[in-house]
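[Solved] Which block belongs to which protein?

Original post:
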Amino acid sequence: MPRPLRGVNRSYGFRIDQILLRGNQIRLRIYHDVFGFVSGPAETDMTATGFSQPVQSATERRLLFLLYGRANTNKL
């Protein structure tokens, strides 16, 4: 995934696409989107899990910016 927090050098994001099979047929598809950033001495992670389809990008982005804002307001 592209850098989720523009302007934040130490941020990352990646997706794990998990397929659950029953026999040889797809039973369920699970998406785990993991985002993180470093703020001071702390590393903060956020995971969004979607079933059958990924969580909407706009929702992930809004929550990640909220989390980043709170981490910078309450630095260790």
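(Second protein starts here: sequence line, then its structure tokens.)
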Amino acid sequence: MLKAIADHGGKYVAGGFNKTTTLHGASPPNRVVIVEFESMAKAKAWWDSEDQKAATKIGEKYATLNTFRVEGAMPK
């Protein structure tokens, strides 16, 4: 999966099993992954790729997946 992310210009930023802690509100799932892309268009291209579709299909056999795209803030 990391190769497919990199092949589409993405960068694995953070995540893994039990790597989050709650500061306020509901506890997060035990696995959270953050991937950075240069643009929403590149994120969409990765998501629509055959590599990602295959990975999602496999993942859905074993877990409930929730996937989001979030527009990043520009650094000041």
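Accepted answer:
You had them paired correctly. Confirming on the second one: The longest helix spans residues 50-62.
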